[in-house]
Design a protein that fits this description.
The chain has about 450 residues and is of the alpha+beta class. It has helices at about 5-20, 30-50, 50-70, 80-100, 105-240, 250-285, 295-315, 335-370, 425-435, and strands at about 290-295, 320-325, 330-335, 375-385, 390-395, 440-445, 450-455. It contains nine helices and seven strands, in the order ααααααβαββαββαββ. The radius of gyration is 60 Å and the shape is rod-shaped.
Amino acid sequence: MIAEPILIFFLVWKLRKILQKFSVRPEWEKPLKLAMFALVTIFAAQLIFSLETITIWIWDVIILSLIAVIFKRKEFYAARNIVIAFLPLVIVSILTDIIKLLPDRVYDNYGGYLKFAFPFSIIWMIVMLIIFNKQKKALEKEHKKVQEQEEQKKIIASRKAELEVLVAERTSEIMQQKNELEQALIELRNTQSQLIQSEKMASLGTLTAGIAHEIQNPLNFVNNFSEVNTELIEELKGEKSKVKSERDEKLEDEILSNLSQNLEKILFHGKRADAIVKGMLEHSRINTGQKQPADINDLADEYLRLAYHGLRAKDKLFNAKLETDFDSTIGEINIVPQDIGRVLLNLFNNAFYAAMEKKKNLTGFQNLSGLNNYEPTVSVKTKKVDGKVKIHVKDNGIGIPQKVVDKIFQPFFTTKPTGQGTGLGLSLSYDIIKAHGGEINVETKEGEGSEFVIQLPG
């Protein structure tokens, strides 16, 4: 039969294709080439010399050998499906060749069955080849999909590695920025502490200047009256040294009366100086933050004079009108005197500054126009309303621009020129008043003045 050579050629061709496709066992390439050459030679000899009787068994042996090799060798695993498709046809062909060697009666009895089985083996082969081809395509598709997934995994792994490097670099940058920000925050806090200390020292400077001015007045009185008393005593000694007939007793009595009056004045101003020193010690005492009863009227009046005299000590040309209106029914309230004093001192200093700036701005205009009717004025008023104590600090200075009114209590914000303010005074004042459970507000009109209102629990 011609089926065997065709099947053998096909199987050998398929085996070579498998080897080329999967690059397995290259040592098989040469034997398979020789096998193809031998098959062509045998087939040619069969056609030329009519050796079909002999070659039939050669083909059968070769095809059975190929089938055995395919099922035995793992590298030819891919060809097993084709063998399964061809196997019924191979069996039918071999059985037909065997029956032909038997007596004719045997061929007549069984040959019909083989002829009947032949088309079914062909159908089997075609169906199985179609099925295997579909399976092959499905496997190739799945293999391609797996390859794509592997490639995608490689791409993802590569991208992941790149991202990890980028993340590591970015993390390093962020950590460096974090360290820089932490260092900047430490420096900012140190600077803030220094500025707060500077603001406190500025307030202390104004307070000290005011206290020095205040204490100077009674000391001047004490010194002056002491000098007068010294002269009076010398005059009295001179009068006492005279003989009795020449002494003027009326003059002696007058000198003694003057000495007594002067000593009273010295005592009065000495006590005044003592009170100022005690007040100074009270202000310089360490702030424990503990509230204690205090007269808000006395505190406001004292800090108003201290702020005024402190500025006068810095600028001899400065002068302002002071107005007070204290509610005597308030009495004492629970506050931290040093803290509230710092708030009042800051508000008074700001009020005097605003009044001085307006005076400077109007000086040139007044000189040109001949007008000189502006008088810097700072007024302080206290009032108890509905159980609350209100302190009004008002000036007729330059006022605050409306566009920045909402910012004046923010830290480091100031309307003063660079170098003349830290921007912490009102911020600290706001925090102190809030800590006392109170409120601080401002009403202002640019060019006309400002009024700060503090409200504290009564």
